[in-house]
Amino acid sequence: MNSDHSSPELDHAADMLSQELAECHACVMAVFDHAITHKDPAVQLQSMLAATRLMQASAAAASALKRLRNPGTHHTVTVRPGEGEGGSGGRGPTPEKLKTNGAA
Question: What is the pTM of this model?
């Protein structure tokens, strides 16, 4: 964390935000997986809209984390539906298998 703004409270907030980003990534992947495996187009659309909102929330959280830590923190969300353990089929990757750069 930037030494000009370092404090135990900010460090704790940054750690919590990093954990929330990882969980949000897992949720996005699960919702996208649900969208691609469901047969009903209306459910697919609603799932994609929900995943989009989660991605927007993730981007906002990443921006806040960047401001908490330093200007050099980068956050990228990469979604590849169907690349979970064993491909698609209703299972997304575990949080340990998610790949991000920077924040998580």
Answer: 0.55
